[in-house]
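RESIDUES AND SHAPES:
===
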Amino acid sequence: MPKQHILALDYIRGLSMLGVLGIHTGAYSLAYPAVNPHLFALLEIFTRFSVPIFFFVSAFGLFISQPLKAEFSYLAFMRRRFKAVLLPYLAWSLLYMLHYTWASGDFSIWNRPLVYEYFLFGLASYQLYFLVILVGFYALMPLWRQLVRCILKAPLAGLLSLLIGQIAFNYYSSYLLTAGFDNYYLNLAIQHRMSYLVLHYLFIFILGAVCSELYPQFLAALERNKRVVNVSFVATLTGMLFFYYHLVYFKQYSLEQAVNTVHQLSPVGVLYTLGATLFWFKTFSRPLPTKLSAALGCLGRYSYLVYLVHPLVMYYLIVELTRMAIPLTPTVTVAFYFATLALSTCLASIITMIGTLVPLLSLALTGSLPKQETIRQKA
């Protein structure tokens, strides 16, 4: 069966990439003493669905291309997936580690066992943990296929049970679990659990798989319940913002403390992820204005490379702002965000073009070889 191309997934990738840039921009904005809490909420709270929804999109795409009814070869699957994710992960980890050593003169990260920890937990750059978790999902794909088969027998009951379990697990992991054991390796595993443990995002991944398997029914359900979907999105977003403002204005939390409490793994964060996922899929499953469709499609096309390269762009923008003694005021923060978006997209486009001339470079940095049609056009 030919693979379906679902534009909504491309649009969601583009939107999520914008959200990831917002989250990381918000982190940099804390360097300014008088951070605007409302702009910070836009950058850090509204965007909290961005990383989890990538797992939904990944699972949806995987099960559209290899549904449960189709023959599944684990070895062939792992070869393709590791090429698409593991190779870029290793290449970009090495690139970021080399850059850190070059910029700082610090060679300590190359010493054992620290170098192993950097590669194992995605420590080379703050966005790479996503790829570590994604590789974990891929490695356990036979298990997820069996789980999806079980859930499909009673989808609503199965997903609701998984959602409740997800909230309980994330609450324990986020707020109660601490690393205080005598065993060094156990403490290390607990300390970095957010960087590799797939269980934190199991519900949203399985939701993507189930919705893919029931795609026509899923679209029909979204259309029938569009008002409920809209209300759920607004209600859960309101819950996130209420929690955030309560911590900031009534509990006197710092903005950093507040966002480290109101995140995508918090109970309301899990519900917001679900509400946002359904809302954006419903929205993007309908025809969009031509310019908006083109913009989101472009962002979706380059989202993977933008995700991988934007920390380098942010680093040098901050270096330049520091050299010019320009503080990250709210206005500068907004400009910083759009400059990061523009420069990262340009870099992604350049890397893609160079990849057509140097296929092995494309394979290392993007996990795929350029299409022969593109190579012929360049020639």
